[in-house]
Amino acid sequence: MEKSIAIIGFNIFSAGGTTRSNLNNIHDFLAAGYQVHYYNFREFKKIDVVKLIRENSFLEGAYFHEVKDIQDDLEGDTVFITREGFFPLAKYIRYNYPDKVVIGEMHAALPMDDKMDLEPNFPYFHYVRVATKSIQDFIRNEYHFDRTYVQTVSLSHLSTKENPNFKTSRRDAYGNANFLVNSRFDPQKDIPYAIKLMDCLVNKMGHRDFRFFVNGYGPSQTMIKKLIEHYNLTDYVFMNESQPDNYMYLSTAKVETLGYSIAEEFAKGHAIVVYAGDDGVVRENYENFHNCLWITKDIADDSQKVLQFADQENSLEGYRANLNYLAPLTDSYVKYFEENTALAKETQKPDKVISLDELLDKIETTSLADELTKYRKIYYKIKKWPIIGSIISNEKLKTAARKVLSR
Questions:
Q1: Which fold has domain 177-326?
Q2: Who's near 349: CB < 8 A, 6+ residues apart?
Q3: For the segment 329-369, what is each residue's pLDDT rounded down to a tens digit?
Q4: pLDDT grade, residue 184 (50/70/90)?
Q5: Domain extent listing, the chain
Q6: Same topology for domains 4-157+331-362 and 177-326, yes or no?
Q7: CA gyration radius for the chain?
Q8: Short name of one Pfam family for this protein (predicted)?
Q9: SS3 96
């Protein structure tokens, strides 16, 4: 009998680390012979699926549904819930579909999780996947929940073939030392620290051969632009412009559970300048990698380290070792998952649950709450109306509305 899984996620049609993880999981389980059903929290149209398949041809074998569809039927022998804010769905699934195995996927860093999303809902999971041993230990000690397993997310989108354009020099043809970051612009990514580091290198120490290329989107974009101007770095820090051919990747995020962009840059052969994370999890993931500089967010100390690092050479042997570290994470996710969950442990069975509509509305209002929630809820309701719905779905209008609401 064909094995099957369901994946419940926020919005696979938008960019992000969890989207990348879900795409990789769909790819890996399809390749392993599973039937795969994906349930999207956000509403979508058939054209959205067509576009996504055009960009990821392997998705032709998957089935796409909206989360509200689980009220009538939920496909898959095993159900993955891939956002901590959706963990309350575990109770609903255990009550209405008692034969399903329910797996929780923790993608956010622990400091960013809401305790009320975790503690009351852990008992309804057969297992919860976590990124590192330290996270597993914390959950066991803090929440007294031991049905967890440690497994890194799939990196099947990465190529671990050696880059023929690998460069030993960390400077470009003009002698410049370039930093690059691809990131969502939000406080957790701490782009302001990277700009302050550039201020120290360029303005205070006089090293005008450093450049910083910042690529991304998000709520902090305007603030980052103002910081660039405030520090008089418009000739040295560039936002969403063409990236250099030779660069060092810079990650200053406060917390990450993996850091997809870091893994991607190691695979390409670029040197990495990276902060270990407030909780040390980033260092836990990449401790043994080469061509890497660990910074501490002490400006004076970091600037001196960066100056030395930029003038050192990338090690080809170190790059090859990094590829060897990454290789097992590109094609073994299903194998490790099956080993980690071979013994389906018993879970708590709920006596009663609220309706799915109430539950989804509660998730929208609490777990996804921000200053734009009330506007977003109105948008998704009137989007269904004839004529008006097609008008407000217009991309130009949506872009203008986002700018107004952001201000």
A1: Rossmann fold (3.40.50)
A2: 94, 95, 98
A3: 888 999 999 999 987 667 888 888 889 999 998 888 776 64
A4: confident
A5: 4-157+331-362, 177-326, 370-406
A6: yes
A7: 23
A8: Glycos_transf_1
A9: helix
